[in-house]
Amino acid sequence: MTRILKVGMVQQSCGTDIAANISKLESNIRDCASKGAQLVVLQELHNSVYFCQTEEAAICDLAEPIPGPSTERFGALARELGIVLVLSLFERRAPGLYHNTAVVLEKDGTIAGKYRKMHIPDDPCFYEKFYFTPGDLGFSPVHTSVGELGVLVCWDQWYPEAARLMALNGAELLIYPTAIGGVGTDSKEEQQIQRQAWQLVQRGHSVANGLPVITVNRVGHEDDPSGNTIGLDFWGYSFATGPQGEILAQFSTDSEENKVVEIDLDRTEYVRRGWPFLRDRRIDAYGPILDRFGK
User: Out of 24, 107, 114, 117, which one is annotated catalytic?
Assistant: First the structure.
């Protein structure tokens, strides 16, 4: 019998009022559940604005422990609705030690597992290295009642190694909570090229590993609180693919939206039999991949 997983995807804008952001998230999660979603995925750092446009130590006050207030509140919602829920939180691990962490909540509201973002960018308007320590949990899928979830976060989506290791460790789908957008110094044409490249590389992970991909990005303009730039225009453009990179759901670039997409988890078996990339890997020859660069 074919296993169909209904995945809810929430693409929304965020403002400086955290309570309002969370209230809107809860409403959108309920909307997805009402449409039959068994799994709901939220965007990166969804409780607040994307605060990494500047480097400000006081912003670390936003960080919270895991378990903590967000896992308790969203856990109660997951339990009420009977859904698996993927969160993206600013984790306070210890005084002065923080992570960008995805948390997977089971249908009963408990924490099924978490993933700490491994690849941390440091670019204009994306100063994440100031806030986040690289993850130390490896690339291990989270076991849930709806399947093995290969959860990664945003900048991880550019790295085929991350997707491949999740696949080799048994992930049944790849999930990317995301916060990516255009920097004001780039032209509209350049931003469109970047956005297309961003989707294309993830579709490549889907094809290379024979896995569905779920990518949920935020949308809307967020000001740079320092006033040094004109801020970020988040791309939206959330999407879902099947295991050959085929687009199953596509969001707009400028609107808040919820969608529920049906994912055929059994199609991976069919696809991998026809395209046996894992069979033909030359694992005996890949040692140099651990070098920073070639000779």
Answer: 117
117 as an active site residue: the answer is: yes
Q: Could you give the strand order of the β-sheet that contains 84-94, starting from the edge strand earlier in sequence? A: 111-116, 97-105, 84-94, 39-41, 4-11, 257-264
Q: Is the pTM for the entire model greater than 0.90?
A: yes
Which amino acid, residue 272?
R
Active-site choice (14, 32, 44, 222):
44
Q: pLDDT tens digit string along 155-187?
A: 999 999 999 999 999 999 999 999 999 987 788
**Catalytic residue status for 44:** yes
Is 52 considered catalytic here?
Answer: no
CB 276 within 8 A of CB 292: no
Of 14, 32, 125, 154, catalytic: 154
Reported as half-sphere exposure (CB side, CA atoms, 13 A), residue 125 has a value of 21
